[in-house]
């Protein structure tokens, strides 16, 4: 299958869907209009259908993709995707055979992000049309446990001819070329697109990750979803983590027992960041977005991949696509 034809792409580049409001319709539209795959991050179900329509209007003739961040997905999200006729769905951090079958029956192209060969085999067995192989250098939550280029051959083997996109460590045309040479069909970038003018990351969040000299893996921001994630340091991690990201006992225990919070209604979940002051070790996965108080960057997750150590500035999404395209600048 020619992935570029199937997904109406000019270049083998996809923007990662980043939830919690980071990757909204402005970013997905700009990326799609530039010829790459724009992806909406998971948003409240009531807003998703409208966001899909906005991308379709802003980038006519291009595919619209939605990331379904599985621990937080409810039936209404899926109904919104199907109802709005989304072209591509990316499943992250969970594999659900019935969901994949439902999407496939409506002609949706289903990609599943995986971090191990076992996950890759399961995704294929459940009907995935293609895989996203995530490496451990990625920003945000981590399925990946090995560097992306080391994991890629395992994912390609498991994919048995289906397309494989590589995520983690992609910040330049040279990274894209290396991934394609190693057998990937396309690349997925998150951190690069987080650092664009169209992302809804809080400007101080963008400044902090550009200034960082280190990223690390932790589980601190795990209230409701205690899965590992890659961040840069802030007051919260300095107070509650060791230098290598290991979380102090109290927040670790709180996070472990908080699984049911992932099922809170969207409106309630969005308010949890306001409760994060650093006095109590309650740290949700929601990252600082435009409109939040400046102080949120001290107490909320500053997700970032290893690439931020070599990224220099916030640029337009169009420029980011141009810089990531093979042979691009
Ligand atoms: C700020 C941020 C938020 C993310 N949110 C999500 C998400 O909601 N769902 C998901 O499947 N992956 C998410 N990811 C992971 C991306 O899908 C992707 O694997 C990762 O960004 C690739 O690594 P990179 O950041 O080095 O480009 C996120 C990544 C970042 C940096």
Automatic annotation (TrEMBL):
Gene Ontology MF: a single term: monooxygenase activity
One of the Pfam families matching this protein, by short name: NMO
InterPro entries (UniProt xref): Aldolase_TIM, NMO
Keywords: Flavoprotein, FMN, Monooxygenase, Oxidoreductase
Name under which the protein is recorded: Nitronate monooxygenase
């Amino acid at each position: 299958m020619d992935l570029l034809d199937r997904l109406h792409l000019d270049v083998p580049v996809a923007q990662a869907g980043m939830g919690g409001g980071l990757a909204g319709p402005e970013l997905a539209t700009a990326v799609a209009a530039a010829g790459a795959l724009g992806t909406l991050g998971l948003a409240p179900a009531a807003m998703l259908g409208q966001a899909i329509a906005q991308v379709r209007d802003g980038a006519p003739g291009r595919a619209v993709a939605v990331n379904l961040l599985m621990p937080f997905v409810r039936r209404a999200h899926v109904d919104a995707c199907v109802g709005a006729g989304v072209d591509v769905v990316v499943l992250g951090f969970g594999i659900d055979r019935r969901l994949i079958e439902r999407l496939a029956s409506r002609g949706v192209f289903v990609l599943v992000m995986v971090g191990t060969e076992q996950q890759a085999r399961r995704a294929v067995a459940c009907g995935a049309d293609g895989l996203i192989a995530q490496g451990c250098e990625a920003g945000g939550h981590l399925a990946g446990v090995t560097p992306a280029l080391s994991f890629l051959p395992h994912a390609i083997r498991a994919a048995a001819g289906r397309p494989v996109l590589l995520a983690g460590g992609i910040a330049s045309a040279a990274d894209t070329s290396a991934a394609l040479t190693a057998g990937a069909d396309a690349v997925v970038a998150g951190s690069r697109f987080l650092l664009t003018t169209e992302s809804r990351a809080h400007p101080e969040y963008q400044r902090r990750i550009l200034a960082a000299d280190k990223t690390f893996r932790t589980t601190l921001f795990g209230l409701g979803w205690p899965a590992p994630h890659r961040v840069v340091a802030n007051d919260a991690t300095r107070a509650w983590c060791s230098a290598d990201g290991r979380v102090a006992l109290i927040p670790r225990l709180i996070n472990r027992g908080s699984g049911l919070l992932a099922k809170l209604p969207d409106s309630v979940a969005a308010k949890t960041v306001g409760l994060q002051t650093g006095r109590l070790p309650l740290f949700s996965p929601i990252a600082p977005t435009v409109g939040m108080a400046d102080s949120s960057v001290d107490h909320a997750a500053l997700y970032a991949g290893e690439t931020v150590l070599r990224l220099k500035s916030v640029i337009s999404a169009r420029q980011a696509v141009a810089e990531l395209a093979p042979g691009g600048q």
